[in-house]
Design a protein that fits this description.
Blueprint lengths: L2 H23 L2 H16 L6 H31 L1 H11 L1 H20 L3 H26 L4 H25 L1
Helix pairs in contact: 2-3, 2-5, 2-6, 2-7, 3-4, 3-5, 5-6, 6-7
Length: 172
């Protein structure tokens, strides 16, 4: 068996995983959703109970998701008809939910270990920054950049995302 034959299944699995990741996390909707959600988490009251902060954050995410579905349906319904446009809008907008999953999971896990809403909030923000770093790293990896450029891209992407979140926070 040649080396090419032995690595073909691994390469196919890698491409499949990359497509799965791209379709869920590397879309404008996903990145936008992650930025908006991180801002909502930052704005959420860290002085109240953890359950209230989680409820406000997650319910706000669902409302933003539905608003995006509505906007997509409205803008696309003349081309595809209402039913198809709505179905496509729900699918197209899912990236907003997928991208926020790591932050939400981090906050829920942290909530099991502490009743400090500030710690839960921090976990969500750090998870979002990590997600942005992964997105930056993978974007540069797709260009064939050297490892140091990928790492610099990851840090830059996370920093720029934090800057946008802070700008939104200060404006609200």
């Amino acid at each position: 068996m040649s080396d090419d034959t032995a690595t073909a299944p691994d390469a196919a699995r890698h491409r499949k995983l990359q497509r799965w990741f791209d379709n869920r996390f590397r879309t404008p909707v996903a990145v936008y959703g992650l930025i908006v959600y991180t801002t909502v988490v930052l704005i959420a009251d860290e002085e109240g109970p953890v359950s209230e902060m989680l409820t406000v954050s997650i319910s706000s995410l669902v409302v933003f998701y539905l608003a995006h579905v509505f906007a997509h349906t409205l803008s696309d319904h003349g081309r595809h008809g209402l039913g198809t446009a709505t179905r496509l809008a729900f699918i197209h907008s899912l990236g907003m939910l997928y991208a926020c999953a790591p932050s939400t999971i981090a906050m829920i896990i942290t909530a099991f270990f502490t009743s400090d809403a500030g710690d839960v909030q921090d976990a969500g923000i750090w998870a979002a920054l990590a997600m942005l770093a992964v997105l930056g790293f993978s974007a540069y990896a797709r260009t064939g950049a050297k490892l140091w450029v990928r790492l610099l891209g990851a840090v830059g992407t996370a920093f720029l995302g934090l800057l946008v979140v802070m700008l939104e926070f200060w404006l609200h």
